[in-house]
Protein backbone atom coordinates (compact mmCIF):
# COMPACT_ATOMS: atom_id res chain seq x y z
CA UNK A 1 0.00 0.00 0.00
CA UNK A 2 1.29 3.50 -0.82
CA UNK A 3 1.81 5.53 2.31
CA UNK A 4 -0.23 8.72 2.53
CA UNK A 5 0.12 11.70 4.86
CA UNK A 6 -3.68 12.26 5.11
CA UNK A 7 -6.74 10.35 6.30
CA UNK A 8 -8.72 10.52 3.04
CA UNK A 9 -9.34 7.79 0.50
CA UNK A 10 -7.73 8.04 -2.93
CA UNK A 11 -9.58 5.25 -4.75
CA UNK A 12 -8.00 2.84 -7.24
CA UNK A 13 -8.93 3.36 -10.91
CA UNK A 14 -12.27 1.63 -11.47
CA UNK A 15 -14.26 0.61 -14.57
CA UNK A 16 -17.65 0.69 -12.85
CA UNK A 17 -18.63 4.32 -13.51
CA UNK A 18 -18.20 3.62 -17.25
CA UNK A 19 -20.13 0.35 -17.20
CA UNK A 20 -22.86 2.04 -15.13
CA UNK A 21 -23.13 4.90 -17.60
CA UNK A 22 -23.37 2.50 -20.54
CA UNK A 23 -25.99 0.51 -18.62
CA UNK A 24 -28.06 3.69 -18.26
CA UNK A 25 -27.69 4.35 -22.01
CA UNK A 26 -28.78 0.81 -22.86
CA UNK A 27 -31.74 0.87 -20.47
CA UNK A 28 -33.12 4.18 -21.73
CA UNK A 29 -32.61 3.58 -25.44
CA UNK A 30 -33.81 0.03 -24.87
CA UNK A 31 -37.01 1.43 -23.44
CA UNK A 32 -37.52 3.52 -26.59
CA UNK A 33 -36.75 0.51 -28.82
CA UNK A 34 -39.27 -1.55 -26.85
CA UNK A 35 -41.96 1.06 -27.31
CA UNK A 36 -41.42 1.47 -31.06
CA UNK A 37 -40.05 -1.86 -32.28
CA UNK A 38 -41.40 -4.38 -29.71
CA UNK A 39 -37.94 -5.77 -28.87
CA UNK A 40 -36.79 -6.00 -25.25
CA UNK A 41 -33.21 -7.18 -25.96
CA UNK A 42 -31.47 -3.86 -25.50
CA UNK A 43 -33.38 -2.99 -22.32
CA UNK A 44 -32.71 -6.40 -20.74
CA UNK A 45 -29.03 -6.13 -21.67
CA UNK A 46 -28.94 -2.73 -19.96
CA UNK A 47 -30.59 -4.12 -16.83
CA UNK A 48 -28.11 -7.01 -16.61
CA UNK A 49 -25.23 -4.57 -17.01
CA UNK A 50 -26.71 -2.36 -14.27
CA UNK A 51 -26.96 -5.30 -11.87
CA UNK A 52 -23.37 -6.36 -12.64
CA UNK A 53 -22.15 -2.80 -12.07
CA UNK A 54 -23.99 -2.42 -8.76
CA UNK A 55 -22.74 -5.78 -7.47
CA UNK A 56 -19.09 -5.13 -8.33
CA UNK A 57 -19.03 -1.46 -7.32
CA UNK A 58 -20.53 -2.07 -3.88
CA UNK A 59 -18.42 -5.23 -3.45
CA UNK A 60 -15.38 -2.99 -4.00
CA UNK A 61 -16.62 -0.43 -1.42
CA UNK A 62 -16.92 -3.26 1.14
CA UNK A 63 -13.40 -4.44 0.26
CA UNK A 64 -11.99 -0.92 0.59
CA UNK A 65 -13.68 -0.30 3.95
CA UNK A 66 -13.76 -3.61 5.77
CA UNK A 67 -10.68 -5.30 4.33
CA UNK A 68 -8.36 -2.38 3.52
CA UNK A 69 -9.33 0.00 6.33
CA UNK A 70 -9.81 3.04 4.10
CA UNK A 71 -12.98 4.18 5.90
CA UNK A 72 -11.32 6.42 8.48
CA UNK A 73 -13.51 8.84 10.49
CA UNK A 74 -13.32 11.68 7.92
CA UNK A 75 -14.10 9.24 5.11
CA UNK A 76 -17.04 7.84 7.08
CA UNK A 77 -18.29 11.38 7.64
CA UNK A 78 -18.29 11.88 3.87
CA UNK A 79 -20.24 8.64 3.41
CA UNK A 80 -22.79 9.84 5.99
CA UNK A 81 -23.23 13.17 4.17
CA UNK A 82 -23.63 11.25 0.94
CA UNK A 83 -26.38 8.99 2.26
CA UNK A 84 -28.22 11.91 3.85
CA UNK A 85 -28.10 13.88 0.59
CA UNK A 86 -29.30 10.85 -1.37
CA UNK A 87 -32.26 10.29 0.96
CA UNK A 88 -33.07 14.02 0.75
CA UNK A 89 -33.19 13.74 -3.04
CA UNK A 90 -35.60 10.81 -2.66
CA UNK A 91 -37.79 12.91 -0.36
CA UNK A 92 -38.08 15.48 -3.16
CA UNK A 93 -38.87 12.69 -5.61
CA UNK A 94 -41.86 11.61 -3.51
CA UNK A 95 -42.85 15.22 -2.84
CA UNK A 96 -43.57 15.52 -6.56
CA UNK A 97 -46.06 12.66 -6.49
CA UNK A 98 -47.73 13.99 -3.35
CA UNK A 99 -48.00 17.37 -5.10
CA UNK A 100 -49.72 15.68 -8.03
CA UNK A 101 -52.13 13.89 -5.69
CA UNK A 102 -53.08 17.01 -3.74
CA UNK A 103 -53.33 19.10 -6.93
CA UNK A 104 -55.98 16.71 -8.29
CA UNK A 105 -57.76 15.86 -5.04
CA UNK A 106 -58.08 19.28 -3.39
CA UNK A 107 -59.88 20.78 -6.41
CA UNK A 108 -61.52 17.86 -8.24
CA UNK A 109 -62.59 18.78 -11.79
CA UNK A 110 -66.14 18.43 -13.18
CA UNK A 111 -64.91 15.47 -15.26
CA UNK A 112 -64.41 13.58 -11.98
CA UNK A 113 -67.84 14.57 -10.70
CA UNK A 114 -66.48 17.50 -8.72
CA UNK A 115 -65.72 15.21 -5.78
CA UNK A 116 -62.90 13.11 -4.33
CA UNK A 117 -62.82 10.14 -4.55
CA UNK A 118 -64.09 10.64 -8.10
CA UNK A 119 -67.49 9.28 -9.10
CA UNK A 120 -67.39 5.57 -9.86
CA UNK A 121 -64.22 4.83 -7.89
CA UNK A 122 -64.54 2.22 -5.10
CA UNK A 123 -61.69 3.00 -2.75
CA UNK A 124 -59.88 0.47 -0.55
CA UNK A 125 -60.97 0.39 3.10
CA UNK A 126 -58.13 2.10 4.98
CA UNK A 127 -58.83 0.03 8.08
CA UNK A 128 -58.29 -3.32 6.43
CA UNK A 129 -55.04 -4.40 4.68
CA UNK A 130 -53.60 -0.85 4.51
CA UNK A 131 -53.79 -0.61 8.31
CA UNK A 132 -52.10 -4.00 8.65
CA UNK A 133 -49.39 -2.75 6.29
CA UNK A 134 -48.91 0.27 8.53
CA UNK A 135 -48.49 -1.98 11.57
CA UNK A 136 -46.05 -4.21 9.68
CA UNK A 137 -43.79 -1.32 8.69
CA UNK A 138 -43.92 0.29 12.13
CA UNK A 139 -42.97 -3.06 13.67
CA UNK A 140 -40.08 -3.35 11.21
CA UNK A 141 -38.88 0.05 12.40
CA UNK A 142 -38.74 -1.34 15.92
CA UNK A 143 -36.90 -4.51 14.87
CA UNK A 144 -34.30 -2.58 12.86
CA UNK A 145 -33.61 -0.42 15.93
CA UNK A 146 -33.30 -3.60 17.98
CA UNK A 147 -30.80 -4.87 15.40
CA UNK A 148 -28.78 -1.66 15.68
CA UNK A 149 -28.55 -1.86 19.45
CA UNK A 150 -27.60 -5.55 19.21
CA UNK A 151 -24.73 -4.70 16.86
CA UNK A 152 -23.55 -1.89 19.13
CA UNK A 153 -23.61 -4.19 22.13
CA UNK A 154 -21.79 -7.02 20.35
CA UNK A 155 -24.78 -9.37 20.55
CA UNK A 156 -24.17 -11.39 17.39
CA UNK A 157 -27.09 -13.82 17.58
CA UNK A 158 -29.64 -11.13 18.49
CA UNK A 159 -28.40 -8.87 15.72
CA UNK A 160 -28.84 -11.64 13.17
CA UNK A 161 -32.29 -12.57 14.47
CA UNK A 162 -33.66 -9.00 14.64
CA UNK A 163 -32.26 -8.13 11.21
CA UNK A 164 -33.82 -11.29 9.74
CA UNK A 165 -37.14 -10.35 11.33
CA UNK A 166 -36.93 -6.85 9.83
CA UNK A 167 -36.37 -8.28 6.36
CA UNK A 168 -39.21 -10.80 6.85
CA UNK A 169 -41.57 -7.95 7.78
CA UNK A 170 -40.44 -6.06 4.67
CA UNK A 171 -41.22 -9.07 2.48
CA UNK A 172 -44.60 -9.50 4.25
CA UNK A 173 -45.47 -5.86 3.41
CA UNK A 174 -44.52 -6.41 -0.23
CA UNK A 175 -46.61 -9.60 -0.38
CA UNK A 176 -49.66 -7.92 1.18
CA UNK A 177 -49.34 -4.92 -1.15
CA UNK A 178 -49.06 -7.22 -4.18
CA UNK A 179 -52.28 -8.95 -3.10
CA UNK A 180 -53.99 -5.56 -2.72
CA UNK A 181 -52.85 -4.55 -6.22
CA UNK A 182 -54.28 -7.75 -7.64
CA UNK A 183 -57.61 -7.42 -5.82
CA UNK A 184 -58.08 -3.65 -6.24
CA UNK A 185 -61.40 -2.64 -7.88
CA UNK A 186 -59.64 0.12 -9.89
CA UNK A 187 -56.56 0.23 -12.17
CA UNK A 188 -53.85 2.75 -13.11
CA UNK A 189 -55.97 3.64 -16.15
CA UNK A 190 -58.91 4.79 -14.02
CA UNK A 191 -58.39 8.52 -14.41
CA UNK A 192 -56.27 10.68 -12.18
CA UNK A 193 -57.26 8.65 -9.11
CA UNK A 194 -55.75 5.50 -10.55
CA UNK A 195 -52.66 7.34 -11.80
CA UNK A 196 -51.84 9.05 -8.51
CA UNK A 197 -52.63 5.95 -6.45
CA UNK A 198 -50.56 3.44 -8.39
CA UNK A 199 -47.62 5.71 -9.24
CA UNK A 200 -47.18 6.92 -5.64
CA UNK A 201 -47.74 3.54 -3.94
CA UNK A 202 -45.90 1.76 -6.76
CA UNK A 203 -42.72 3.79 -6.34
CA UNK A 204 -43.03 3.33 -2.59
CA UNK A 205 -43.27 -0.45 -3.05
CA UNK A 206 -40.17 -0.36 -5.24
CA UNK A 207 -38.34 1.45 -2.44
CA UNK A 208 -39.48 -1.18 0.08
CA UNK A 209 -37.95 -3.84 -2.18
CA UNK A 210 -34.72 -1.84 -2.54
CA UNK A 211 -34.60 -1.28 1.24
CA UNK A 212 -35.17 -4.98 1.89
CA UNK A 213 -32.30 -5.85 -0.46
CA UNK A 214 -30.02 -3.37 1.32
CA UNK A 215 -30.92 -4.89 4.70
CA UNK A 216 -30.37 -8.40 3.30
CA UNK A 217 -26.84 -7.43 2.23
CA UNK A 218 -26.28 -6.07 5.76
CA UNK A 219 -27.52 -9.38 7.20
CA UNK A 220 -24.99 -11.29 5.08
CA UNK A 221 -22.24 -8.90 6.17
CA UNK A 222 -23.23 -9.24 9.83
CA UNK A 223 -23.09 -13.04 9.52
CA UNK A 224 -19.61 -12.72 7.99
CA UNK A 225 -18.32 -10.57 10.87
CA UNK A 226 -17.91 -7.38 8.81
CA UNK A 227 -19.50 -5.10 11.42
CA UNK A 228 -17.91 -4.11 14.71
CA UNK A 229 -19.71 -2.51 17.63
CA UNK A 230 -18.00 0.84 16.85
CA UNK A 231 -18.03 0.77 13.03
CA UNK A 232 -21.04 -0.44 11.02
CA UNK A 233 -21.97 2.47 8.79
CA UNK A 234 -23.35 0.21 6.02
CA UNK A 235 -25.96 -0.98 8.46
CA UNK A 236 -26.74 2.54 9.68
CA UNK A 237 -27.24 3.69 6.09
CA UNK A 238 -29.65 0.77 5.49
CA UNK A 239 -31.53 1.61 8.70
CA UNK A 240 -31.84 5.29 7.70
CA UNK A 241 -33.19 4.27 4.31
CA UNK A 242 -35.63 1.87 5.95
CA UNK A 243 -36.96 4.55 8.32
CA UNK A 244 -37.36 6.88 5.30
CA UNK A 245 -39.42 4.17 3.52
CA UNK A 246 -41.55 3.78 6.65
CA UNK A 247 -42.22 7.55 6.91
CA UNK A 248 -43.17 7.77 3.22
CA UNK A 249 -45.72 5.00 3.83
CA UNK A 250 -47.20 6.89 6.77
CA UNK A 251 -47.70 9.95 4.55
CA UNK A 252 -49.18 7.76 1.80
CA UNK A 253 -51.53 6.09 4.25
CA UNK A 254 -52.77 9.33 5.79
CA UNK A 255 -53.11 11.20 2.44
CA UNK A 256 -54.18 8.66 -0.16
CA UNK A 257 -55.69 5.77 1.78
CA UNK A 258 -57.38 7.61 4.64
CA UNK A 259 -58.07 11.25 3.70
CA UNK A 260 -58.53 10.29 0.06
CA UNK A 261 -61.19 7.68 0.70
CA UNK B 1 5.39 -31.98 34.08
CA UNK B 2 2.49 -34.21 33.03
CA UNK B 3 0.32 -33.06 35.94
CA UNK B 4 0.99 -29.40 35.10
CA UNK B 5 -0.05 -30.02 31.46
CA UNK B 6 -3.25 -31.86 32.42
CA UNK B 7 -4.04 -29.19 34.99
CA UNK B 8 -3.78 -26.45 32.36
CA UNK B 9 -6.01 -28.40 29.96
CA UNK B 10 -8.58 -28.88 32.71
CA UNK B 11 -8.77 -25.18 33.51
CA UNK B 12 -8.51 -23.54 30.12
CA UNK B 13 -10.07 -26.06 27.68
CA UNK B 14 -7.29 -25.19 25.29
CA UNK B 15 -5.97 -27.39 22.49
CA UNK B 16 -2.94 -29.27 23.81
CA UNK B 17 -0.62 -28.57 20.87
CA UNK B 18 -0.40 -24.84 21.38
CA UNK B 19 1.18 -25.36 24.78
CA UNK B 20 3.61 -27.88 23.40
CA UNK B 21 4.56 -25.52 20.55
CA UNK B 22 5.32 -22.70 22.97
CA UNK B 23 6.98 -24.88 25.56
CA UNK B 24 5.78 -25.31 29.09
CA UNK B 25 5.36 -22.06 30.88
CA UNK B 26 4.53 -21.86 34.55
CA UNK B 27 2.30 -18.80 34.45
CA UNK B 28 -0.37 -17.18 32.33
CA UNK B 29 -0.53 -18.28 28.64
CA UNK B 30 0.33 -14.69 27.54
CA UNK B 31 -0.63 -13.82 23.90
CA UNK B 32 -1.85 -17.22 22.75
CA UNK B 33 -5.60 -16.55 22.13
CA UNK B 34 -5.11 -16.50 18.34
CA UNK B 35 -4.41 -20.24 18.34
CA UNK B 36 -7.44 -21.23 20.43
CA UNK B 37 -10.10 -23.10 18.43
CA UNK B 38 -12.26 -24.80 21.03
CA UNK B 39 -13.83 -21.47 21.82
CA UNK B 40 -14.19 -19.39 18.64
CA UNK B 41 -11.86 -16.55 17.66
CA UNK B 42 -13.81 -13.51 18.68
CA UNK B 43 -13.60 -10.09 17.12
CA UNK B 44 -13.62 -7.43 19.87
CA UNK B 45 -17.31 -6.66 19.55
CA UNK B 46 -18.70 -10.12 18.89
CA UNK B 47 -18.82 -11.11 22.55
CA UNK B 48 -22.09 -13.05 22.25
CA UNK B 49 -22.89 -15.81 24.68
CA UNK B 50 -23.10 -18.56 22.00
CA UNK B 51 -20.25 -20.47 20.45
CA UNK B 52 -19.71 -20.65 16.66
CA UNK B 53 -23.00 -19.05 15.54
CA UNK B 54 -23.17 -19.29 11.75
CA UNK B 55 -19.53 -19.73 10.77
CA UNK B 56 -16.08 -18.50 11.76
CA UNK B 57 -14.60 -15.05 11.30
CA UNK B 58 -12.63 -14.89 8.07
CA UNK B 59 -12.20 -11.11 8.06
CA UNK B 60 -8.55 -11.12 9.29
CA UNK B 61 -7.58 -13.49 6.42
CA UNK B 62 -9.39 -11.33 3.89
CA UNK B 63 -7.75 -8.23 5.35
CA UNK B 64 -4.35 -9.86 4.80
CA UNK B 65 -5.29 -10.82 1.22
CA UNK B 66 -6.56 -7.38 0.24
CA UNK B 67 -3.70 -5.51 1.87
CA UNK B 68 -0.92 -7.21 -0.10
CA UNK B 69 1.23 -4.61 -1.85
CA UNK B 70 1.03 -5.97 -5.38
CA UNK B 71 -0.34 -2.92 -7.20
CA UNK B 72 -3.46 -4.81 -8.32
CA UNK B 73 -6.55 -2.57 -8.24
CA UNK B 74 -9.32 -3.45 -5.80
CA UNK B 75 -11.72 -4.75 -8.43
CA UNK B 76 -9.25 -7.46 -9.50
CA UNK B 77 -7.53 -8.20 -6.23
CA UNK B 78 -9.20 -11.52 -5.58
CA UNK B 79 -7.73 -12.98 -8.77
CA UNK B 80 -9.55 -15.28 -11.19
CA UNK B 81 -13.21 -14.79 -10.18
CA UNK B 82 -12.73 -10.99 -10.30
CA UNK B 83 -11.05 -11.17 -13.70
CA UNK B 84 -13.85 -13.35 -15.16
CA UNK B 85 -16.61 -11.09 -13.87
CA UNK B 86 -14.77 -7.95 -15.05
CA UNK B 87 -14.21 -9.33 -18.53
CA UNK B 88 -17.84 -10.44 -18.84
CA UNK B 89 -19.04 -7.01 -17.72
CA UNK B 90 -16.68 -5.17 -20.08
CA UNK B 91 -17.67 -7.42 -23.01
CA UNK B 92 -21.35 -6.66 -22.36
CA UNK B 93 -20.52 -2.95 -22.00
CA UNK B 94 -18.66 -2.60 -25.29
CA UNK B 95 -20.88 -5.03 -27.19
CA UNK B 96 -23.98 -3.40 -25.77
CA UNK B 97 -22.80 0.11 -26.63
CA UNK B 98 -22.13 -0.90 -30.24
CA UNK B 99 -25.50 -2.72 -30.48
CA UNK B 100 -27.18 0.36 -29.07
CA UNK B 101 -25.55 2.66 -31.66
CA UNK B 102 -26.65 0.34 -34.48
CA UNK B 103 -30.20 0.14 -33.07
CA UNK B 104 -30.37 3.93 -32.76
CA UNK B 105 -29.07 4.33 -36.34
CA UNK B 106 -31.89 2.15 -37.67
CA UNK B 107 -34.45 3.72 -35.34
CA UNK B 108 -33.51 7.13 -36.73
CA UNK B 109 -34.27 6.14 -40.33
CA UNK B 110 -37.45 7.76 -41.65
CA UNK B 111 -40.44 5.47 -42.15
CA UNK B 112 -41.00 5.00 -45.90
CA UNK B 113 -44.74 4.80 -46.54
UniProtKB/TrEMBL annotation, chain A:
SUPFAM superfamilies: Cytochrome c oxidase subunit III-like (SSF81452). The chain crosses the membrane at residues 16-35, 41-58, 79-102, 159-177, 197-220, 240-260. GO terms for molecular function: cytochrome-c oxidase activity. GO terms for cellular component: mitochondrial inner membrane. Residues 4-261 form the Heme-copper oxidase subunit III family profile domain. CDD domains: Cyt_c_Oxidase_III. It is a multi-pass membrane protein. It comes from the Eukaryota. Pfam families: COX3. Keywords: Membrane, Mitochondrion, Mitochondrion inner membrane, Translocase, Transmembrane, Transmembrane helix. It catalyses: 4 Fe(II)-[cytochrome c] + O2 + 8 H(+)(in) = 4 Fe(III)-[cytochrome c] + 2 H2O + 4 H(+)(out). GO terms for biological process: mitochondrial electron transport, cytochrome c to oxygen. InterPro entries: Cyt_c/ubiquinol_Oxase_su3, Cyt_c_oxase_su3_dom, Cyt_c_oxidase-like_su3, Cyt_c_oxidase_su3-like_sf, Cyt_c_oxidase_su3_a-hlx. It is found in: Mitochondrion inner membrane. Component of the cytochrome c oxidase, the last enzyme in the mitochondrial electron transport chain which drives oxidative phosphorylation. The respiratory chain contains 3 multisubunit complexes succinate dehydrogenase (complex II, CII), ubiquinol-cytochrome c oxidoreductase (cytochrome b-c1 complex, complex III, CIII) and cytochrome c oxidase (complex IV, CIV), that cooperate to transfer electrons derived from NADH and succinate to molecular oxygen, creating an electrochemical gradient over the inner membrane that drives transmembrane transport and the ATP synthase. Component of the cytochrome c oxidase (complex IV, CIV), a multisubunit enzyme composed of 14 subunits. The complex is composed of a catalytic core of 3 subunits MT-CO1, MT-CO2 and MT-CO3, encoded in the mitochondrial DNA, and 11 supernumerary subunits COX4I, COX5A, COX5B, COX6A, COX6B, COX6C, COX7A, COX7B, COX7C, COX8 and NDUFA4, which are encoded in the nuclear genome. Belongs to the cytochrome c oxidase subunit 3 family. This is Cytochrome c oxidase subunit 3.
TrEMBL record, chain B:
InterPro entries: COX7a (IPR039297), Cyt_c_oxidase_su7a-rel_mt (IPR017267), Cyt_c_oxidase_su7a_sf (IPR036539), Cytc_oxidase_su7a_met (IPR003177). The lineage of its organism: Eukaryota, Metazoa, Chordata, Craniata, Vertebrata. The keyword Nuclease does not apply. GO terms for cellular component: mitochondrial inner membrane; respiratory chain complex IV. Pfam families: COX7a. Pathway: Energy metabolism; oxidative phosphorylation. It is found in: Mitochondrion inner membrane. The keyword Glycoprotein does not apply. It is a single-pass membrane protein. Belongs to the cytochrome c oxidase VIIa family. Keywords: Membrane, Mitochondrion, Mitochondrion inner membrane, Transit peptide, Transmembrane, Transmembrane helix. This is Cytochrome c oxidase subunit 7A2-like, mitochondrial. It comes from the Eukaryota. GO terms for biological process: mitochondrial electron transport, cytochrome c to oxygen; mitochondrial respirasome assembly; regulation of oxidative phosphorylation. Coiled coil: none annotated. The chain crosses the membrane at residues 84-108. One of its GO terms (molecular function) is protein-macromolecule adaptor activity.
Amino acid sequence: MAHQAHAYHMVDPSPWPLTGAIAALLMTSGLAVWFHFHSTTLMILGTILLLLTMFQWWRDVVREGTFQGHHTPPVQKGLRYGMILFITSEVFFFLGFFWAFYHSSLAPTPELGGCWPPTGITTLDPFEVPLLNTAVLLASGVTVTWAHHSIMEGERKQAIQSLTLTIALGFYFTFLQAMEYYEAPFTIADGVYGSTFFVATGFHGLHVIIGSMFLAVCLLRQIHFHFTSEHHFGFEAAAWYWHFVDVVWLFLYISIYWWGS
Amino acid sequence: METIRYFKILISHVHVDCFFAQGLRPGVPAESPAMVFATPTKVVSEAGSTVEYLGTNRVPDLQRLFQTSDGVPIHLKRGVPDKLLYRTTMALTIGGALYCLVALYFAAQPNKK
